[in-house]
Amino acid sequence: MKKLFALYFMALGFALFANPPVLSAQQNDSSEIVIQSDGPQDSEQMPESVLEPEHLEEHGHAPLWLVVPFVALLLMIATGPLFYEHFWHHNYPKIAVGLAVLVVGYYLFALNNVHQPVHALAEYVQFIALLASLYVASGGILIDIDKKSTPMANVLLLLVGAAISNLIGTTGASMLLIRPFIRLNKNNIQAYHIIFFIFMVSNVGGSLTPIGDPPLFLGFLKGVPFFWTLEHNWPAWILALLILAVVFYFIDKRFGKAGNDELVHEEVYSNRFSLKGRKNFLWLLIIIISVFLDPNVLDWVPAIYYDGMKFSFIRETIMLSVAFLSYRFADQDALKGNEFNFEPIREVAFIFIGIFGTMMPALELVGNFAQSPEGSAIINHNTLYWGTGILSGFLDNAPTYLNFLAAAMASQGADINNIQNVRDFALDGYLDSSFELLAISIASVFFGAMTYIGNGPNFMVKSIAEQNGIKMPSFFGYIIRFSLPILLPILFIIWLIFFAFV
Questions:
Q1: Distance (Å, whole) CA 28 – CA 9
Q2: Can you give the residue ranges of every domain in the chain?
Q3: Which single residue of 180, 246, 306, 326 could bond 283 by disulfide (Cβ 3.0 to 4.6 Å)?
Q4: What is the pLDDT of residues 446-499, one digit of tens each?
């Protein structure tokens, strides 16, 4: 397993070595990689590869059949825990990394395309650094609510979690509250409790700020004003959460007492709230602040330029350092009370290296079609809502958001890599452009709850629930039993009210 994991990075390293990059902070030639660390630069000092990406060497494009490894991985994620659990549990790291190596190797050596694998690797590092740091830091915070579980108490906790997700992100809120939610319902915890937690806290809740959900944060980095999401998304946010809360209340009222018949006596509750590991809130604050250390927004942040792309290594270094330090100095009682271990984040790390590595052809094909004349001809707020939404459930909602935003802007002659173009697009500088951005934003966040892999926290919440002995539905069971009969009708209502007749 470790050999396969290393092979993924060795393949990228080999491809880069085959065309040696030059590291420089001042050269103004055609060097592929430039490290900038000395503050804002004039356009004349910027590397040519950053200023004029349209002059870059044309990269090879993926054939349709290269989507097969991604589909195969999704099918194995869906069927493995259900039909061959023992094999899947012991071999999923090898399968995920092996399929990723297959696709990455084809890009590097058959297509001579280093750009896409490097970009996918950078996005994966950003993704796992954020999730790992939030997971470890929140694992050192023990929230104990000594209160009787009731439908109303559960609804209030879910709504509070949805609001908090806009301050510390859906990942942060999920990792902070999933264990208290499980403990609150320890006498009657069932799969639907966890599913609605994923719906409300891990996804829909985080649609008001760029901090809330990764797609919105990517939009902010591209130029969407920080408070744009709050100004435009709140009506759909309120409606979706209210409907979900009402549905959950009646489900919990009907089925929530299932485990209580076996209780020998009625427990006595103090209705008190206790908290251990308060210092870890400081670690969470550091993580949230570090999120904004992006060279695309702050020119003084050190950056690596490669093939028209600009990456920061400072942010991820801070996050991973916080993960180590917060665990090293965590309150041991809090860790013990949370039954903290690294298995959930390990599972997410391997599953998503497979997803990031294999979904490149799918994203590329979708993006190419959306920006083609045929695709541009059918682009409007309705197709953007359903297109972004459906694919966000299966292709990870963050890159899907960027692909459809790029397509929507290209259809109106705007460039997603131009910050002023993005700002104008958000502020209705083009025909119905802010409305199209609203459709993309709402769909990418809300539809991220359609599957376990639509948004990063989903799979982690599932893994934590299973670590606590809760039997969760399979990949398809999640979709058939919950997403299609409960979530999809709500998403259809959102479309009818806010988009269908405009």
A1: 29
A2: 2-41+68-259+279-500
A3: 326
A4: 999 999 988 878 988 998 999 889 999 988 899 999 999 999 999 999 999 999
